[in-house]
Amino acid sequence: MDTSNIAASLDTVAVYDGYAFPYPMLKTDFWLMYLAANGKIYITSGNGVIDIHFINYPDSNGVACDVQQHAIRLPCYATRGNVYHPNYYLGCDTTLGCPCLISTGLSENGKHDFSIKLSPNPGSSGFEILYLLPQNKNGILSVYDLQGRLMHKQSLPQWSTMQHVPASNWAGGVYQVRVESDGYFSANKWVKY
User: Fold this and answer.
1) pLDDT computed for residue 60 by the predictor
2) How far apart are CA 142 and CA 155, in angstroms?
């Protein structure tokens, strides 16, 4: 959301419910937040806790974002920090025949999902782009105006899934956002007002 009056735009989406486990001093309150590759925001506490919160739909306004308090039980206590961020791009160790798929009964996806998501759209000062590059491949992000002029270009590292693109000095209108990597590409339109 873009606004000129930040204080007036504040909206409470959750209030700490008093949960503490297993002792009263281990309150699972709100502290650090982390936007993960699955589009959800994970929230840890300032204490050593075994449960964390998450936000299902961070792009939805108000309580529609669906804050789930102490909804995930961790395998161990996390103290004043988020659990380690997984590297989604490691894939399987092919020298072992991909035992992770065998033991879970899952099969490998045949085709890479190369879609991109832009938010806010429309927006006024810029946007966040969420994407998933092919495994262990870098990418290129390009933004063009309707006349085909390049407005923004940047490299995307192989471990990245989100970038912010500033656009406050661009004219209002429609822009094409394109991500390319390893022979794949995806494009979407972004509207600046």
Assistant:
1) 84
2) 9
Amino acid, single-letter form, for residue 190: W
CA gap 33, 165 in Å, rounded: 21
Give the pLDDT of residue 173: 95
> Would you state the structure tokens that stand for residue 86, as one six-digit string?
């997984």
Where are the chain's structural domains?
A: 18-79, 117-192
Higher pLDDT, 162 or 103: 162
Amino acid 101: pLDDT: 47
Alpha-carbon gap, residue 186 to 189, rounded angstroms:
11
The C-alpha angle 92, 97, 99, rounded to 5 degrees, equals: 65
146: pLDDT strictly greater than 90: yes
Average pLDDT, the chain: 83
DSSP for 1-63 reads: ---S-HHHH----------B-SSTTSB-----EEE-TTS-EEE--SSEEEEEEEES-TTS-GG
The torsion defined by the Cα of 82, 130, 161 and 87, in degrees rounded to 10, comes to 60
Please tell me the least confidently modeled range out of 67-71, 103-107, 151-155, 163-167.
Answer: 103-107
Per-residue pLDDT at 57: 87
For 117-192, the fitting CATH number among 1.10.110.30, 2.60.40.1930, 3.40.50.2300, 1.10.8.50 is 2.60.40.1930
How big is the chain, counted in residues? 193
